[in-house]
Specification:
The protein is built from six helices and no strands.
Length: 89
């Protein structure tokens, strides 16, 4: 039941954010996919690597956010920053 509630909240949040917020609908589709993968214990270094090789920035950002327990905006800034030392942290 908890998974269904979380999925519903993600859906509603995604719909609202895609209409009113800065993030795109595709971001919330990616968020739902990666969050489900994480809930099932299938999110790991290999899946992040696969997303990166496929140039799926949203999935990489969300995945690292979940694995590191950091807000996705922090991960996104680290990924896009020219100073690569932040990624090491």
């Amino acid at each position: 039941m908890v998974d269904q509630i979380q999925a519903s909240v993600t859906d509603v949040t995604g719909a609202l954010q895609s209409k009113f917020g800065p993030a795109s609908k595709s971001y919330y589709v990616a968020k739902r996919l990666v969050a489900t993968q994480h809930q099932h214990g299938n999110l790991n270094e290999n899946s992040i690597y696969d997303y990166a090789r496929s140039h799926k920035l949203d999935e990489v950002t969300i995945g690292l956010s979940l694995l590191c327990a950091l807000p996705s905006d922090v991960i996104e800034r680290a990924l896009l920053d020219k100073n690569r030392e932040m990624l090491l942290v």
